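The instructor's notes for this session suggest beginning with a concrete chain rather than abstract definitions. Hand out the sequence below and ask the class to guess, before any prediction is shown, which regions might be ordered.
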Amino acid sequence: MNIAVIYGGRSGEHEISLVSGAAVARGISKKDSVTLIGITKNGMWYLQDKAEYERIVKDAKASLSIAEKPENLVSIVPGKGKKSFCTANGELEFDVIFPVLHGTYGEDGTIQGLLDMAGIPYVGCGTLASALTMDKEKTKQVLETAGIPVVPYMCMKRIDLNDSSRYDELFQKAIDTLGFPMFVKPCCAGSSNGANRVSNPKELSFYLMEAFSWDDKVIIEKCVSAREIECSVTGNAVSAHPANEAESVKAYIPGEIIPTHEFYDYDAKYNDPNGACLRIPADISTDMIETIRSTAVKAYKALDCSGLSRVDFFIDKESGKLYFNEINTIPGFTPISMFPKMCEKAGLSFEALVNLLTEEAVLRFESRSRLQTTR
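After discussion, reveal the predicted structure:
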């Protein structure tokens, strides 16, 4: 297969994508052809020379870079299927796209919708599931309806911020109903960008403004003294054929994040090599492991996910109660990322995982292609 790995992007997680994209590219079977397309921070797409792929393959620690050669600027012609991508030098033909774009403009349904319009298979969740799971408030609402417990929360929108009396009302409501400490997060941002732990009204006011610099919606959550448990899930929750193993929804062995920071923030995740201890499997009972796996699958299916997701949970240290925390539809693929590590612990190697995801992408595309769209 001809596989295009798209990385970088207009996101606060751009640099993480450079590392994840390199790992994915190295993990693609040598029997397949790999093409790299880098998206700059201002949103320009550039085809990369073969030398870039050869460079990161030779160095297992190398992250990708983006060369901005004018003749390699990529355009997309919707509707041309596998030949939708082109540069000044002509058409590019791909069998499947592997987007490794964390966060905004990559994990939120935007590129998924573009690839759907182009008519080309791609790895990961579809447009609806990607957009839905990127929004923390909407995700919680869907899962509450499905009977999955979530951490108590409330949401504030920019329209509330612009109405001083409404803002004051919601500000006080957050204090009265959630209490301190609490967490303030942008609704649609990843990797803890703009997320902060809040201990008093002054901090709440300050960190609300920071969160609103990332998004027009902000979620405020009760702070739970909890263990952080994660679970990898793959498969097609919408149209899987029972005969295709690649499409069956499967939850892998859960792992535990044990932060050394106050909470598992961006710095702990990506900058500090000692920011957290990763324990796989999590040191919990067999019954709880199976509860987490089954709840992860339930959440994955309720959100119509496909391809892959990392489903994150909290276990309250005092009550032992399990809460859904969040879901990541393009989780990290860095050398220290939990998603591939949990799959590997279950016997699925990195290369086998990448192969599974590309195979599922093609099968899902073929299934959707059989649907009627015109009379």
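Then share the key points. The longest strand covers residues 226-236. The CA atoms of residues 254 and 292 lie 7 Å apart.
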